[in-house]
Amino acid sequence: MSATQEPITVAPAAAASVPILELRKLEKRYTGTHALKPTDLAFEAGEIHAIVGENGAGKSTLIKLLTGVTPRTAGEIVWQGRPTDLSTPNQAIALGINAVHQEVVLCPHLTVAANIFLGDEDTARGGLLRDRAMVRAAQKILDDIGFALPANVLLSSLTIGQQQLIATARAASRGTKFLIFDEPTAYLTRQEAAQLFALIRRLKREGVTIVYISHRMEEIFELADRVSVLRDGTLVGTRRVTETSDAELIAMMINRSIEQIYHKETFTIGAPILEARGLSGPGFTDVSLSVREGEIVGLYGLIGAGRSEFVMGVYGRQRCSGGEILWRGRKVAVRSERQAIELGMALAPESRRDQGLCLNLGVGLNINLPVFDRLTRGVTIAGGREREAADRQIADLRIKTAGRSALALSLSGGNQQKIVIGKWLNHGAKLFIFDEPTVGVDVGTKAEIYRLFGRLLSEGAGILLISSYLPEVYELADRLHVFRGGRQVASHGFKAASHEQILTEAIGV
Amino acid sequence: MSDNAGALASQKARFEFSRLLGLTLIGVLLAMFLFLSWKTTTFATPGNMSNLARQGAIFAILALGQTFVIITAGIDLSVGAVASFITVVVAMLIQSIVPGIAEALAVVGIPASAANMIGLWIAILAALLLGMAIGAFHAFGVVQMGLPPFIITLATFTALRGVGLLMTNGSTINVTNDAFTGFSRGEIFGIPNLFVVVIVVAVPAFVYLHLSKYGRYLFAVGSNPEAARLSGVNVKAVTATAYILSSLCAAIVGVMLASRTGTGNATQAIGFELEAIAASVIGGTSLFGAVGSVWGPLLGAFILATIRNGANLMNVNSFWQFIITGGLIILIVYFDGLRRQRR
């Protein structure tokens, strides 16, 4: 396919509004996939331009092209009116293009100051580092942008959210003209997100162009001037945020309406599966709640509010120090994960990369990990059953993979999440604990996961759903418990409280 | 439809890739065999072949045990020291208790040679159990005390030699039992006994690593212990098994060495741990864990043995052997890295 060459006309009259960066028929092919189809898009200087799309829509490819990480297949990138090569990261940095990624890519064992100046160190003659000068300079940068963080501590002593802020400060401090954020708030608390937004607005006032990639609609409407929607490597359209709605954007992203995403079905509620009575343990105190057959119980709170710690206690990962657990009416002491699994619990943990998956092993092995006992005949695993069990979940959950032996790391976030969930479906659990099941997952996969909830409930299971995304627990949970500082601070029935009230309870103002 | 076809094609490609390194190693081994048969008159002789099989057998078993530990993303530096220590133990047992056992059994009317064999087996099993106990100690250090594998096995690496030297007062124990020392020279159907031991070890190792759930768990623990744990895998037990099996393999090698040299000596097998790690890595085991096989370290060990054997026959300065081995490690691991990237 050869793109027809259009004569490039430069209108001098419009010189004032020359876009800072313009894509002309920009295109990227990898072997086998057309990751970005010929795309025309102009970024205006000083705007906040959001980009939304499902996983695999081409957002990551676009970032890689703009930051020079990967070379384009065809088309042009025009920087301030001039075509530019942009085929290495250094060229991007020289132009003033920087990116802040979802996962912090800094050195945890160095100080905050050393990280801010990494690769751009202040050295005295002879190459010796001027550490104290750098700490002072770094502290000034942090103070100037209003982050109350120390510059002389190790990066690893900060929370993930704070580290994210440091990464942003680092990018902002380097003469950036064009800054790309890739899901920056995925791991941030609300306060941290608010600090980040303040910084982004400040950068905008200073004339920096911001590209903001996020799955969270409310952030886009709060922050962005314009929003572009990608679907299957194609730019579907660009809108001013004042002239669109999240319903329209979602429809553009997936060709589906918002009601179909939070698809709440009600089932007859049966006997209690799990009851926690005054349960305490590391990071949570005096939690009492129950999950019954056919219901979703939501746990809402900020990151670090004790929700994950509580389920780790229930699941036997952490030893509880007080209170009791009743499993289907019988008092139990859960001492290990294996015991929890034998009782009939299943856990899709918070971090799929750190806790959920063996990334450099096959999809099939990951799916079958909890059930190898049952696939074993005598001393060896029955190969046929093993393949069949893996293929069943790949087909049922529509996991996009080259096959059961493809490595888990080769899959997209949404498909990895399906593995984390799918490994428990062959097991046939009674209580499913989903900890942040839709972080970094595209809207289409979200809808599939929610539909799966319905299927599990209809089969008589109960679900404990942890989410930091309020609409998710609000729309889905039959009962909602709010956590703050390791304690359960409020409990509500289905939609029995307003968003504002729940937020206030979670933040504690 | 096209999705399906693509999936099938790439699955096939993966299948071929995973076999490729195995084929490369067999190719390397065959090429060396052909080259040495052509260049020397002494290589392709029955005598040299069984010699090669014996030399390779020692490292093959050490490397196999080492591989289990490396798959869990650990390392076992103690295998040479354990093997050497076990030569002392088994030699002492044979010299001290076997004659007594044989006499006692002779009284009951068991023929002398059979009584001697029973005594030897008791001594060997006791030595192997002691080997497993050393492995259990490593496992305790790693899973209970939380020590890095490098450290706990480095500790035994030095300490066990000291224990062996104390037990022998620094001297060498000569084994005077002909049935025991004769074993390493013997053959079954023309196959050297020591090579038969490799097969006897490799078959259950293959079942364990590639066919049983415990093998799957070993890979899972090496890849992500937390994910394995939350999926119900007993991570501590799985990790401990790897260390115990590695020390068991080292103890088997200790018994083989004692039989081959006819001595128990705490200063044998110097540097064998590095040879075992090299053989394992040449065989495709990743030092980052979660990648490895049973056939890889076996082939790696015999490639190293062939280099040494061939270099001797061709009168290559033995110092060159070390350099060749070093170069080969870099080459093979580099090409293996390329292969992985292409996935």
Overall CATH class of the largest domain in chain A: Alpha Beta
Low-confidence stretches of chain B: 1-15
Largest sheet of chain B, order of strands side by side?
Answer: 1-4
Total separate domains of chain A: 2
Name of the CATH homologous superfamily of the largest domain in chain A: P-loop containing nucleotide triphosphate hydrolases
* Unreliable residue runs of chain A: 1-15
pLDDT average of chain A, as an integer?
Answer: 87
What's the alpha carbon Rg of chain B, rounded to whole Å?
21 Å
Which structural class do you get from the secondary structure elements of chain B?
mainly alpha
Counted by DSSP, the helix tally of chain A is 18
Distinct helical segment count of chain B: 14
Q: What is the element layout, followed by pairings?
A:
The complex is a heterodimer of chains A (509) and B (343).
Chain A lengths: L20 E10 L2 E11 L4 E6 L5 H8 L7 E6 L2 E3 L4 H7 L1 E4 L11 H5 L14 H14 L15 H13 L5 E5 L7 H16 L3 E5 L3 H7 L2 E6 L2 E7 L5 H9 L17 E10 L2 E9 L3 E5 L6 H8 L7 E6 L2 E3 L4 H7 L1 E4 L3 H5 L6 H6 L3 H4 E2 L2 E2 L1 H14 L16 H10 L8 E5 L7 H16 L3 E6 L2 H7 L2 E6 L2 E7 L5 H9 L2
Parallel strand pairs in A: 3-8, 3-9, 6-7, 7-8, 13-20, 13-21, 16-19, 19-20
Antiparallel strand pairs in A: 1-2, 1-4, 4-5, 9-10, 11-12, 11-14, 14-15, 17-18, 21-22
Chain B lengths: L1 H38 L6 H26 L7 H18 L1 H11 L3 H33 L4 H20 L4 E2 L3 H6 L3 E2 L2 E2 H19 L1 H11 L1 H6 L4 H27 L1 E2 L7 H11 L12 H19 L4 H25 L1
Antiparallel strand pairs in B: 1-4, 2-3
Helix pairs in contact in B: 1-13, 2-8, 2-11, 2-12, 2-13, 3-5, 3-6, 3-11, 4-5, 5-11, 8-9, 9-11, 12-13, 13-14
